[in-house]
Amino acid sequence: MNCWDSINVTKQLGFYRSLILSSLFGLLSFIFLYLPFTLIHKDIIVKDHGLIPVILGVAILPLLHKALRILPLKVTNKHLRIKWTLEKKFIPNFHVGNHSKTSKPTLFFALLTPTIVITIPCIVSSYFVPSYYPYFLLVGAINLSLSYIDFLYIRHLWKAPKKCLISNEEQGYDILIPR
């Protein structure tokens, strides 16, 4: 196998620039989602249960996002190594083992799964459960912010050849093509 391209969005953009762009994408998505729903739900009183449920929901969201991204890879690749760690002694986190190879459609689906499973139901729920619509939109916008880097990887993978394998490396992906 020959390496067709190496993709490392954090290295190309820089950590702080990718963090700023991701935050800006999340903020703009919240604004563009919140405005129409405010017009739809004009006379609705928003229920408030305090700040603690919101903080817990937002704290769990990155772990759920990462788990949903890994789930399709684990289903299709039985030999995928997942390493669990505790950061700061109480925050669970996990990483996919290096040098695991997957196909292009599987990686596309894995990168889009958090958006499909979290963001779209949040937007639909904000329409059908109007008393909690700002909270659903907030969770959806934060998930879109987390998905920003995934969208950049999808943009790079779109240009890759159809019959390629993608290898998970330390900070990015290597696109491998047969000789």
Automatic annotation (TrEMBL):
Residues that span the membrane, as ranges: 19-39, 51-71, 107-129, 135-154
Annotated signal sequence range: none
Alphabetical keyword list: Membrane, Transmembrane, Transmembrane helix
InterPro entries on file: DUF3267 (IPR021683)
Pfam family, one: DUF3267
Protein name: Putative zincin peptidase
